[in-house]
Write a structure and sequence with these properties.
102 residues, two-stranded antiparallel ribbon, Jelly Rolls
C-alpha cells in the first residue's frame, strides 16, 4: 500500500489493516537529564551511538508493570532498543531516540 501522506510509513498488519507510523523526528541525547517525548508522542526506537548506560529507560507497555524502568545496563553501539518508551536518562554514552505518535 502507498503511504497516506508524505512522511508516513504504512505497514500492513493483516489483510485490510494498516498502521501509519508518522516519522515524528528524532532527538540526540548525550547528557544526564531526564528526557521525555512531546505530548502525544513516544520514542519507538532508541539506538546507542556508543556504549551507553541508561539510568532510566521506561517502556510504558512493558508486561511486568506499567511504566517500570528497564534495568540499567550497558548497551552496545548501534543495537536498537524498541518499545513504547516514555522516559530516557543516561548515566553515560549517547543515543538517538526516534519519535512516533502515541
Amino acid at each position: 500500500m502507498a503511504p497516506k501522506r508524505a512522511g508516513e510509513l504504512s505497514r500492513i498488519l493483516s489483510e485490510g489493516q494498516t498502521v501509519g507510523l508518522d516519522l515524528g523526528g528524532d532527538e540526540f541525547i548525550n547528557d544526564n537529564a531526564l528526557h521525555t517525548p512531546p505530548s502525544g508522542y513516544h520514542y519507538y526506537k532508541v539506538v546507542p551511538k556508543e556504549a551507553t548506560v541508561f539510568a532510566v529507560l521506561t517502556d510504558s507497555l512493558r508486561v511486568n508493570g506499567s511504566n517500570s524502568p528497564l534495568d540499567p545496563e550497558s548497551h552496545p553501539s548501534g543495537v536498537a532498543i524498541t518499545g513504547h518508551i516514555t522516559a530516557i536518562d543516561l548515566t553515560s554514552g549517547a543515543c538517538w531516540a526516534y519519535l512516533a505518535p502515541s
